Amino acid sequence: MVGVVNIRRDVDDKFYRYRMPELLTKIEGKGNGIKTVIPNMSDVARALSRPPSYPTKFFGCELGAQTTLDEKKDRYIVNGAHQADRLRELLFGFIDKFVLCGACRNPETDLIIVKNKETRSEDIIRECKACGASTAVDMRHKLTPYIVKNPPTTNKKGKKGEGASSNGAHAVATNPNLPDAEGSEGDDDPSAAAESLPVESSLANEGWSVDTSEDAVKARVKDLSTKLQTTLIADEDSDEDANSPYSQLGQWAEANRDEVNAVEVYKHAQEMGIEKKHKTVQVLAQALFTKNMPSEISKFAPLFAKMNAQSEKHQKAFLGGLERLIGVMHPELVPSVPKILMQFYQADALEEEVIKQWGTHVSKKYVDKETSKMVRKASEPFLKWLDEADDDDSEDEE
């Protein structure tokens, strides 16, 4: 489930009026083609009343990376592998420079592009609907030329372009209310003056005011409950949901398994708020290992020892992940099943009783029945060793 954070990072009040979804990232590709996809950039940008291309381009400017903007597919990409925390920090930098009012620090602002009479250049102004102040954006930033060249506009037919009025940022040729703005013909004509004023954004008209009536509150609570239930179902049951935190964690782990260690993987899951979920170990079991798994286990065994210690459910989900990894993704590992189980058993990532129960009960929960039988059949030498070890212990006690 996507978290919600305050738009201003210096405000800790959980009841702060201006909030936005927490930025999510997903690593895709490998080698020179690796890239960071931002699946909820549109949602974040909508909360900021800015076009999604602006913060995406801001990331590219700050990181020295190329960006890809695909509005039709709602897909925003920054080349290279970038941690979510790093991009979230940069997002707050974008907010400070291009969203918050320079006078009252309120995010209810529109971007206005004006012609500077003295320099004959174009400036970007943050016009605040809260305090009425018009404060200038620092034009030295690398993003400003992009905003000037790609202003959010609405044509005469009302067709919205990128960052049109629904995004809350507007461009006008001149602004007669500012001292450095160039005047235009027809300033004395009321209709001409009206046309030069920025068009109110739909978000400004409907998003900043909240209906607090009893019926409205009940409706919002009902809507929130429905959305929450849908999200939890998607997270728990759908492996194909590309926006679920499990899918994102799997993509990240697969892309970074050679560079990260067990502690870093755990911290990343912790940042996503899913380090205690049993499905997390199932996903990591499939994402952190390759066909060379027997030689890779020692690197991540402490991670699974810590996470699987939470419950038998975690261990069973982990074994389910191993079934899929070995039986479906890398069938060449089937002969190595006893060695693999031995390593996790010795690392305290799996308990004896859980392994025995798993090895003697075929299940179709994670793979098809035939694959399940094949993997369990391969585990028989290890199960036999466990039984013999128990017999030896009994004889010693006698």
What do you see in this structure?
- The protein is of the alpha+beta class and 398 residues long.
- The chain folds into three domains: 4-98, 2-Layer Sandwich (Defensin A-like), CATH 3.30.30; 109-206, N-terminal domain of TfIIb (Single Sheet), CATH 2.20.25.350; 242-397, Serine Threonine Protein Phosphatase 5, Tetratricopeptide repeat (Alpha Horseshoe), CATH 1.25.40.
- The protein is 47% helix and 10% strand.
- The protein has 16 helices and nine strands.
- It has helices at 41-48, 53-63, 84-98, 144-149, 190-196, 202-206, 214-237, 245-256, 262-271, 278-287, 293-308, 312-329, 337-346, 352-359, 369-378, 380-397, and strands at 4-6, 19-21, 26-28, 35-37, 67-70, 75-79, 109-115, 122-128, 134-136.
- The strands form three sheets. A four-stranded antiparallel beta sheet has the order 3-4-6-5. Strands 7-8-9 form a three-stranded antiparallel beta sheet. The protein has a two-stranded antiparallel sheet with strand order 1-2.
- A hairpin with a 5-residue loop joins strand 8 and strand 9.
- Helix 2 packs across helix 3 and helix 12 (312-329) crosses helix 15.
